Amino acid sequence: MDEAVSIHRGAAWRIQALYVRVLLRLLPLLINVFKCASPKVRAEIDYLKPGYTFQLSVQGADLVGICRRTDAGSFKRVPPSRVARDVEPGSGQPSSNPQAATVDYVIDFRSVPFAFQCFSGGKTLKAALAERAFSTRGPNDTGVALTYMFTALLKMFFGWRKAYRAEPKARRRAEAA
After folding, report:
1. What is the SS3 assignment for 33?
2. What global pTM score does this model have?
3. Would 90 disulfide with which of 32, 71, 84, 106, CB 3.0-4.6 Å?
4. Which of 163-166's residues contact partners 24+ apart within 8 Å by CB, and which partners?
C-alpha cells in the first residue's frame, strides 16, 4: 500500500513539475500578451529598465525561467547557458563576461508543489509570501514591481479561481467591523 502512495505522489509531482516547466517557458510570451491587455501590467513593466533580467526557479528541481526586457519593451527568454556564472544571481554585481546575462532579481520557490499552487492560481502570491513559499534576492524596488506585475498577470489569468476572486463588499465590511 505504501508503494502505491509513493508512486501516486511521484506521478503528481512529475505532472506539477511539467506544468510549472511549461509556464516558465511561456512566461515571456504571457507577459508580452498581457501587457497589451492590462494597464497595470504595462505600468509595472515600464518601471523595469531595458536589459532588466529576472529569474524564477524551483528548489529541488531543474526548473528555471529567465526573462530579459528588450530595448523595445518586450520580454525574451534567456537560455540558462547565457547566464553569467561568475556572479551570484540577484547580487547586483557585474559579470566579467560582457556577453553573459546577469540576473537582477531572483524568485526561488521552495518546492514544486509551492510553485504549482502559485502558477495554477490555487494560492495568491501574497498568501505564498506569507507562508514563505519562495525567497527573493535582488533590489527591493524592482522586486516590488515584479510582484505587482505577477499579481496582475495571475489575476487576469486565474480570475475565475477562488484565490483571485474579489470578495463581496458585505463580507469585507463585516470582517472590518
Report:
1. helix
2. 0.81
3. 106
4. 163/121, 163/122, 163/123, 163/124, 163/127, 164/121, 164/124
